[in-house]
Amino acid sequence: MSDKSGVFPSEWNDDGVMDVLFSPFRGNRDVNPRSWDSKMKFWTGLIRKHCADRKVVSFNVRQLTEVFERNGKVPSCLKVVIDDLKRCGVIQSVSEFQSSAETSWVSWSVNTFIKKPVVWSYNSVVKSSLSWAYGMIAGKKSSDAYRPKSRAELLNDLPNEQFVILDLVQAAASAIYERHKNSVVYNVTDNVIAYAALQQDCRDICADDNSFHFAILELVRQKLCTVTVGSDREQLIRMVVNKDDVATPLSENEERIYRLKATANKLELNISKITEEMEECRKTAKGLLQQGKKSAALKCLRRKKMLSESLAQKEKAIDKIHDLVDSIQQTESQKQIVDAFASGVKAFKSMTKGSGLTEDTVDETMLNLQEVLEANEQINEALGQPVGGPADLSDSDLENELDDILKARPDATPMTRGKEYHPQEIDLGLPDVPEHDPNFSRASDAKSKNLLFTPN
């Protein structure tokens, strides 16, 4: 027994478990639903994992028998597993999948989930029941239906057909779409790409040609891209950037822009080759000079000179192409700006029209506002008038009265009020200010004098 740990689940190395899993399904699911579902889950997950690990989205049923061969035995239950996957809509035959990409999503879903299960049920249930009844009438034992079949019988029972795993192809299509979307800088020049170039860029998503083909068909079915054969028989993919948009066929202008960019890419490759050839001519001429073959060296230099002139012409052509592509890209930016302005103007007009905002209504409102402000000012002035006093009393009169109070004498009478006030003229009946120190007596002063004039 070959050890396939890491590729297959741990049960693969258990002979007892694998004998049960390799055996045919017994009767129908109603007999033992738990065992039936467990075996179905094992093989469904193994088939999907086998494809996902290899980065493919389809498989051939008969090839699976080679992949899942164990100890010289092949699974006896694959046909039932494949039929169940088809019935549940997990897989689809390549022919059905390709035809679904040419019709709308509605018709595809009707064919897949409504019509086909009915046909499958008739083929799987009715026909198998008739076969069982015929066997009973013919005298066959029911156990004969479950006898182990030979390898040749098992291969004959399996359809030699390719099937697509729908969730894997949808995941691959989504990954391809996102990768291309992230590479688009200007929609007008970058939304078209060669089929072969995109496939080469997505080798880590789809490992083989069939898987990439099915993923592109899925994008076509979702109306996210269109595939067109160009004028030189090259397959071109036009993909939308916004998923809300619907892909339309490639236009003539879009193909012209693609050809323009393709020409620039070819010129860049030619320039790279010419540069390498010029370097080889220089090295060859140098070697010939060292060998004394001057004429041959001159011939190499002439070749290098011709290549240099061709290089200059191609570089000028690339510059012109890049300028033209830049102009096309700027046109798209300018169109977006103009469209934004137009949308803004339209929105402004719609808002002003719906809200009744016009020049007349604005003027009327401003006049009303001015009248209200003036009326409010008059009210404030009226409220500021003194209450209960003479109406003609002004602030200047009050200020003059304050000045008179400050100048008036403290003993002023109504007769003398208003005269200038001189505090030094008021007799308060106070004694005169002393001229000597109050603490110094006359007796002490005489005694001090005697001491000063007494002889020693």
What is this structure's SSE topology?
Layout: H1 15-22, H2 33-53, E1 58-60, H3 61-67, H4 78-87, E2 91-93, H5 94-101, H6 105-137, H7 151-157, E3 162-165, H8 166-183, H9 187-190, E4 192-194, H10 195-201, H11 209-221, E5 225-229, E6 235-239, H12 252-290, H13 294-355, H14 359-383, H15 395-407, H16 442-453
Antiparallel strand pairs: 1-3, 2-3, 4-6, 5-6
Report on this structure.
Helices cover 63% and strands 5% of the residues. Helix 5 crosses helix 11 and helix 12 runs antiparallel to helix 13. With 456 residues, the protein is mainly α. About 10% of the residues have low confidence. It is extended. It has 16 helices and six strands. Strand 5 and strand 6 form a beta hairpin.
Number of helices in the DSSP assignment: 16
Shape: extended
Given helix and strand content, the structural type is: mainly alpha
Tally of extended strands? 6
Mean pLDDT: 77
For the largest beta sheet, what order do the strands appear in spatially?
1-3-2
Radius of gyration: 53 Å
Strand content: 5-15%
Helix content: 55-70%
Largest sheet geometry: 3 strands, antiparallel
End-to-end gap: 152 Å
Task: Extract low-pLDDT stretches.
Answer: 103-148
